[in-house]
Amino acid sequence: MWRRDDAALAFIGSRRGLLLLLVAALVAVACWLLLASSSPFAEKYSGTREERLFDKWQRQGRWDKIVSHSREHAVQSLACQKVALMAQWRQGNTSVDLKECLTDSREVLTSQTAALMMSDSYMLLGMPAMAQRAAFDAMVKTNGKKLRERPLRRLVEAALVMNQPQLAMKYITILEDYSSSSEWAQSMKLLARHPELIYHYPTLSKLRKSYENAQDAFFL
User: Residue 48 contacts by C-beta under 8 Å, 6 or more apart in sequence?
Assistant: First the structure.
């Protein structure tokens, strides 16, 4: 007669036993990921659902969606509140004070998504130094290589706009290891080596002229 240990080993050695163990392992991993994604630690990096939604709309230029959503729902995130104000301004609301779209406090940078949203806002408003600072915060608030790709791109853009080619080259070198950014990094490398070519890039050229003729600011 088999002992219980022998029966257990026989079960584990069977195909059915292996299949059941695999399913159990997958369920355990899924549960762990679900808990991790809903934990405060995960939110610190990825941001709230509201922040991810506003970030997507801002990147798509869907200012109408941001405005309509903020009118129908109470906006919780401070970063989202700032983006909602800017969306109103972009939609032609001249009563919006652009200073209200900005902040010199790090309280707004509660997650990587919030920091990236504010970096985008600052860049759109022609304030690359503040965009650079927010991108640094986004780098700090990430725990994975893939999540560093977007803030690294912003750091390259900000450095080029502020005529800091050596700093830009530092981040370009890092981005060359990202397959999805390698081609973009090569084009930016040419720009870092020949800063005068920035005037052939409409968006960066406009930001450079704005930066040269306006007072930028850093976070306090």
Answer: 76, 77, 111, 113
The DSSP letter of residue 141 is: T
- Total-model pTM: 0.74
pLDDT digits (tens, 9 = 90+) for 117-127: 999 999 988 88
C-alpha 63/C-alpha 67 separation (Å) is: 6
Kindly report, residue by residue over 144-190, the tens digit of the pLDDT: 777 889 999 999 999 999 999 999 999 999 999 888 888 999 999 99
Sign of torsion over alpha carbons 82, 86, 87, 89: positive
Length of the chain: 220
DSSP letter string over 58-107?
HHHT-HHHHHHHHHHS----HHHHHHHHHHHHHTT-TTS-GGGG--S-GG
CA distance 27 to 190: 49
Burial of 218 (0-12, 13-18, 19+ CB in 10 A): exposed
The torsion angle over the Cα atoms of residues 112, 185, 102 and 89, rounded to 10 degrees, is -110
The one-letter amino acid code at 105 reads: S
**Residue 18 neighbours by CB under 8 Å, 6+ apart:** 12
